[in-house]
Amino acid sequence: MPWSIWKAGYEPFEKAGQDSVFLATPKGNILWTCDPAIVKQLFTSHSFQLPVDLLKFYDIWGPTIGSVEGQEWKTHRKVVAYGFSSTPLPVVWQRTIHQTKTLVERWARDDYLVKSPRIWMSRVALHVIAGVFFNTEMNWKDTEEGGSDSQDKEYQSSLPNSILTIMLRLGVLFMTPTWLLGRLPFKATRETSQAFNDFTNYMLSIRSRVLENLDEVSSKRNKTMLESIVVAGNMDPTDPESKPLSKESVLGNIFFTMMAGHETVGNTLGFAILLLAIYPEIQTKVQQELDDVIGSRPKETWSLETDYTALQKGFLGAVINETLRLYHPVQFVPRTSIAETTLYDSAGKSHVVPPNTLFCVNYAAAFSNPATWTKVSVTADRRAELQHSRAIDFDPQRWLKPAETSDVPIHWPFGQGGRICPGKPMAQVEMIGVLTTLLKEYSIELVIPDQVLKETQGDRGKAWDHARDNAVRQLQESVEANLTIAMLKDLPIRLQRRSGGDHD
Ligand code: HEM
Question: Are 114 and 202 in a shared domain?
């Protein structure tokens, strides 16, 4: 079952005694694989494509980069890639730091108690994306209390509100035709319908404005993502082959990119925060690195070129890599063979696969295969006591050991080949930016419930061990997969000001 793939990890392959398992089903053949050599071919060979028929539910506005193939995909990819290239990463870096700073100010109102880190982290990611895509400033009032209604009579809700509702109601949007949404008598469908209409109208009016001033917008150095997509999706007068992107696809790509970039980053950060709270010694190492790299300089001087680069290559980058290894937001990626093809596995053995075979690249198995990833030394009894949680094997240090050279990648949280995630640089900048801003001034701590303190008769050491073990178990039991892997249960943390940290 798709939702248990992450939980099963490498176990089904271990039981089968091989890294690829072929299933013959009445609906067709499926090959589940975590073999790095086969995965590389699936991602990079032209004999394999995305099974787009299974992904049409993304086409709420129109075809998007994530639901088309072949020449059509190339057009979408070119347009979206142009959007990313004209969105400077220093802007993403600055916006991320600013949003995280305002988030901590918001948390101060709750005495720095954070009930669900994942939800707040997804909001930070959404705020950054909205800023970069539409040059709109989302604030915590917008995303928490529904924000202010639109000042503009044409719209019922503000742009930030319509974005937020759409992102929160993806399930409703995917399952209900948009013409039906407003006619159903439910609050959820009514709100989604309103957000859908408002978002569509906002986007169309911005698109019209860009088209009316195309020359001026085209020559702007820093365009928003929406402006870039409209400009790049317009006909190229110097290329007779170029095809314009329909207005439905302009909106579709904005929606898809926002959806792909919001929960992925938010969920990863949510996991990273919990892991750092569980492992204070690792957190201290990150903070030492932040003190070395950033010193006591104020936030306005933190630079993408020097600070981000050093941290990304250093221990903080290793923490993010390790989080993505254990809690990769994407749990599997599908491909389909368009012709009979020969695949070579990691042992060099060849396998002929028929056309129309469905392939599923199993991330959870590949990233926990004990032949590739050494486990942390913990007894079998202790592993059982902690529900065999993946959090037991959190070891960022492994990323700082010299890598063995091979042309077959063993870690691909962002995919590989032509369809590799175009948002990877942006995601990395956001993740480093958020954690840097939080950990430079604060430490993240698990919250010890009063009940546990009572049970341990006020012994704080014992109580902490109890809270840590509970958190480790939750990081297995309460992890679920919908579109992405997420920690569904609230696991509260609290920020504590660092005594040595510098405060603006
Ligand atoms: C931790 C963060 C992220 C992870 C782990 C991730 C992972 C992935 C993966 C595995 C794919 C490839 C799927 C395939 O091969 O079929 C992908 C595609 C994509 N991602 Fe990301 N992503 C992340 C963040 C982002 C961000 C921040 C954005 C945009 C703001 C984004 C936009 C996209 C788009 C548009 C595609 C489709 C590319 C195509 O089909 O050509 N992603 N992502």
Answer: no
Q: How many angstroms separate the Cα of 295 from the Cα of each of 44, 220, 258, 440, 495?
A: 43, 36, 34, 9, 20
pLDDT of 233: 81
Question: Does ligand 1 lie within 6 Å of residue 264's CB atom?
Answer: yes
**Residue 468 and residue 431 share a domain:** yes
DSSP alpha helix (H) spans, 223-306: 225-233, 247-278, 280-294
Ligand 1 centroid to residue 291 C-alpha, Å: 32
For residue 60, CA distances in Å to 54, 166, 225 come to: 14, 11, 19
In this structure, the answer to whether residues 379 and 499 fall within a common structural domain is: yes
Could you tell me the distance, in angstroms and rounded to a whole number, from the CA of residue 451 to the centre of ligand 1? 42
Average pLDDT across the chain, whole number: 90
Beta bridge partners of 49: 336
> Do 86 and 3 belong to one domain?
no
3-state secondary structure of 365: helix
Place of tokens 């175009």: 422
What average pLDDT does range 196-219 have in this prediction?
Answer: 89
Best mutation site among 421, 424, 426, 483 for ligand 1, i.e. most ligand atoms within 8 A of its Cβ?
A: 421
Provide the pLDDT confidence category of residue 287 given band limits of 50, 70 and 90: very high
Beta carbon of 64 within 6 Å of any ligand 1 atom: no
Domain CATH number, residue 18: 3.30.43.20
pLDDT at position 1 over 50: no
DSSP state of 149: B
Out of 50-64, 291-305, 400-414, which region has the weakest mean confidence (pLDDT)? 400-414
Report how many domains make up the chain: 3
- The better pLDDT of the pair 180, 86 is held by 180
| pLDDT, tens digit, 9 for 90 and up, residues 110-155 | 999 999 999 999 999 999 998 888 888 787 876 665 544 555 556 6
Same domain (yes/no): 302, 391:
yes
* Whether residues 216 and 324 fall in one domain: no
8 A C-beta contact, residue 350 and residue 343: yes
Which of 372, 396, 422 corresponds to the end of one domain? 372
Full residue range of the structural domain in which residue 35 is found? 1-61+331-372
**Distance from the CA of 315 to the center of ligand 1, in angstroms?**
24
List, as residue ranges, the binding site. Answer: 421
Verify that 57 and 145 share a domain, yes or no.
Answer: no
- 356 and 307 co-located in one domain: no
The average pLDDT across 436-452 equals: 95
- As a dihedral over the C-alpha atoms of residue 164, residue 247, residue 173, residue 359, rounded to 10 degrees, the angle is -110
